[in-house]
Amino acid sequence: MALNLAMFGPPGAGKGTQARRLATERGIPQVSTGDILREAVQGGTELGRQVKAIMDAGELVGYDVMLGIVRERLSKADASGGFILDGFPRTVAQATALDDILEGRQGLVVLEIAVGDETLVNRLSRRRVCGNCGAIVGDTNGEAQLLCPTCGGELSQRSDDREDVVRGRLEVYHRETAPLVEFYQGRASFRTVDGDQTPEVVAQAVQAALSAVNGAAA
Fold it and tell me: Pick the catalytic residue: 20, 105, 158, 162?
């Protein structure tokens, strides 16, 4: 059975980690709008420059840009057998548009990964990204690493992971994205997972949530 999944939650909740793991297990693409936008920023395109200014300020990228990116990506052949959306939808308007995009396809499963604000501030302000392979690395035993454990590349802090920007991003999330819970919670295919656990435990909770959705649909 194809899995069409949208995973959302506040920045730093672990959506990307769980989406990558699940995509590998299921053999379906992870559609990360954040990664797509960061590639545009690194490419130095006009869109990339506009996106960088928005992301650096901790704001959300515009509705039309995000919707166009998702519509094009989900139309590709590798997404016909299922997909995992990581970071979309972010607003109720985007969720409504996503329903229209998916009309005629198998139903959408929606998972919220919930984590408290202070935990997220600690996570994001301590994490670093590798300039060589792009890996995201958290702190170890309270000490920030300087070199990537994967490739040995130099680690640096993303501009949108500074504590002041993180708090701004969380304010935007609560204002714009948290209402998605109310939008989706009446659907049998919606579940919430506690993200304030180890990645392995969260992965088990994600699998349990998907099994519960399948059981409800049977």
Answer: 158
Structural domain of residue 59, as residue ranges?
3-115+162-217
76 is catalytic: no
CA geometry: angle 214, 215, 218, nearest 5 deg: 85
126 carries an active-site annotation = no
pLDDT, tens digit, 9 for 90 and up, residues 129-142: 888 888 888 765 45
In a domain, 191, yes or no: yes
Q: Tens of pLDDT along 97-141? A: 999 999 988 899 999 999 999 999 988 888 888 888 888 887 654
Reply yes or no on whether 105 is catalytic: no
114 exposed, middle or buried (CB, 10 Å; 0-12, 13-18, 19+)? middle
Q: Is 162 a catalytic residue?
A: no
Going along 9-73, which residue ranges are E strands? 30-32
CATH code of the domain containing 33: 3.40.50.300
Q: How far apart, in whole angstroms, are the C-alpha atoms of residue 117 and residue 99?
A: 29
Phi-psi region of 57 (alpha: psi -120 to 50; beta: other; left: phi over 0): alpha
Let me know if 175 is a catalytic residue.
no
